[in-house]
Automatic annotation (TrEMBL):
One of its GO terms (cellular component) is membrane. This is Probable N-acetyltransferase 14. The chain crosses the membrane at residues 37-58, 64-84. Residues 124-154 are annotated as: Disordered. Probable acetyltransferase. Pfam families: Acetyltransf_1 (PF00583). It comes from Perca flavescens. It is found in: Membrane.
C-alpha cells in the first residue's frame, strides 16, 4: 500500500488519452467482482438443483461420477464468464463499460471537482501530463475518428478520474441525467495500491457536492450483490439500501421500477441499489 496525499489529487473529467488507462483500471477492479458474482449464482438453491438434474442425466451417459458432476459446473462457469460482463456492463446500466468509456470522454476537458483537502492543507494540487506507453497498436489507432453519435454521447454520462502527478488512481462513473434532480453512480474503482486511503470517499463526496450544487436532491449507487466491502463503504457515507427502512409514501412505484437491481442468470440479482438524499 502506498501512502497517498489526498490534497495532491485532482479529480477531473476523463480525457481521450485516459481511456486505455481507465479501461485497465476497471478490468483490474472487475476481476474479483466477477468471480464473486459467479460463486454467488452457483450456490443459489435453484441453480444447485438444476446442476444436480444435469449431473444425474450425465451419470447415465458418462460412467464417471466426477465427470458427471464437473462438466455441468464447468459449462455453467464458462457461460457466466461470457454473459456476466455483457449483462452487467456499467453496474446499473445495460451498456458495456467499453462503450460507456468511449462515449464519455468528450466534454469540457478542464472541468474538475472540488477537493476539500486542498482547502484544509492550503496546498494547490498540480496535474502533470499523463504518462502513457505508446504501443504499435496505438500508433495505428486514432480515437478521434471513433464514431460517437451525439445521442450515444449524451446517453453515456460522465467519467471522472482521480489524477495525481499524471497517474490515474481511481475513477467514478456517473450515469446520464435521465431524471430531473436524480443522479446515479454506476461504478466506483480505485487502484489496488490506493485502497483504504480515503480516495473512494473523496471521489464520491466531491461528486455529491457538485451534483448538489447543480440541483440534485438524491443520488443512487449500484453495488455488486456479493460485495460486502462496497456495501459497508456506501453505508458509512450515509447511503441506505433502496426500499430498506423507507415508507411507501416516500418511494413511489415509478421510482422503484426505474431503480431495480440488475439481474442475471435465472433472474438472480447481481446488484444492490443504495440511495442518499443530498
Amino acid at each position: 500500500m502506498v501512502r497517498l496525499e489526498l490534497d495532491q489529487v485532482v479529480m477531473r473529467r476523463m480525457k481521450e488519452d485516459d481511456i486505455e488507462m481507465v479501461k485497465a483500471l476497471i478490468k483490474e477492479g472487475c476481476e474479483g467482482t466477477e468471480n464473486r458474482l459467479i460463486l454467488h449464482i452457483l450456490t443459489r438453491p435453484l441453480c444447485l438443483f438444476i446442476l444436480a438434474v444435469f449431473s444425474s442425466v450425465l451419470r447415465c451417459l458418462v460412467h464417471s461420477f466426477i465427470l458427471a458432476l464437473a462438466i455441468p459446473v464447468f459449462l455453467l462457469i464458462i457461460f457466466l464468464k461470457i454473459t456476466i460482463p455483457r449483462s452487467t456492463g456499467v453496474l446499473g446500466s445495460s451498456r458495456p463499460y467499453w462503450d460507456y468509456v468511449g462515449s464519455s470522454y468528450r466534454g469540457t476537458e478542464d472541468e474538475t471537482l472540488q477537493n476539500p483537502y486542498c482547502r484544509i492543507s492550503g496546498k494547490t494540487s498540480v496535474t502533470k501530463k499523463p504518462r502513457r506507453r505508446i504501443t504499435p497498436k496505438d500508433k495505428d489507432k486514432d480515437l478521434s475518428t471513433e464514431n460517437v453519435t451525439p445521442e450515444r454521447e449524451q446517453e453515456a454520462g460522465q467519467v471522472w478520474v482521480a489524477d495525481c502527478d499524471g497517474d490515474i488512481l481511481g475513477c467514478i462513473f456517473r450515469e446520464s441525467e435521465k431524471r430531473a434532480n436524480i443522479r446515479r453512480i454506476c461504478r466506483l474503482v480505485t487502484g489496488c495500491w490506493y485502497r483504504r486511503e480515503g480516495l473512494g470517499r473523496l471521489l464520491v463526496q466531491s461528486l455529491e457536492q457538485r451534483e448538489s450544487e447543480g440541483g440534485a436532491h438524491r443520488v443512487y449507487a449500484h453495488v455488486p450483490y456479493p460485495s460486502k466491502m462496497g456495501e459497508a463503504f456506501f453505508r458509512k457515507l450515509g447511503y441506505r439500501q433502496f426500499e430498506e427502512g423507507t415508507d411507501e409514501e416516500e418511494d413511489d412505484e415509478e421510482e422503484r421500477k426505474l431503480e431495480t437491481p440488475e439481474r442475471g442468470f435465472l433472474g438472480y440479482p447481481l446488484t444492490k441499489v443504495f440511495y442518499k438524499d443530498l
